[in-house]
Amino acid sequence: MSVPVLLTHHWRQHRLALLWLIVAAAFFQWAITRVVPSADQTAFVREILTLVPPPVRVLLGEELVANVSARGFLGFGYVHPFALLMFAAWAVRVAAGALAGEVGRGTMDLLASRPVTRGAHVGAGAVALGVGLALIAAAEWAGTAWGLHSRVLENVAPADFVPLAAMSLLLFAACGAVALLVSALSDESGTAISWCAGILAGSYVLDYLARVWSTIGFLRPLSLFRYFEPQRILREGGVAASDAAVLGAVCAVALLLAFAAFARRDI
Q: Fewest CB within a 10 Å sphere: which of 102, 108, 168, 232?
């Protein structure tokens, strides 16, 4: 049994879920292009947003509230909780199922009896995770491009949102690698899913609270979501190298630890 065979195994397990996530991601970003205010509506929307409570403005993004624009609204679509949920669902599902799920069901004993290293199991899970995330990110961008093709907005082009899709991919590659590490240490998929969901939710809440409550602002760099800021990416015309470096480093370290942990544990 080789990595390609393990990938086929993952494909059979997750292909239907992946299809639904791809469709949902594309449709959501397309729908955002339908509700984005046009140039003659931005002044009215800006007045409405000034009435929104400060905690909600933080959730929307202070830059978006201060400078209402079609680009800003489309950018918010990439950090909307629904959009993040599409990625999180795939990351947790695949990571938990690839290692802890097989151990919990007892199928890992059968898989481990074949001529394949434990590292191959982790590697196949990582590849399945990355390919799925890439397809969801591509679907998001395709949804935006599709919407902008049928509705032309001033000073907005589909290419503007390629960095947002790329950073969404990198953010959840890091989250997925952490989830894979948790899975490598767990004996059941339920336990792994609980821990992974808790870590992701905690990271998201920490980022939000650190922006709302200045007293704990110094903790914000501990959240992975701190390194994905669509409004800043759109304003600066690209991704900050430091943000990409942090997410890439977390991804690499978590994967290395997952390989080491699964190689040493009892199955």
A: 232
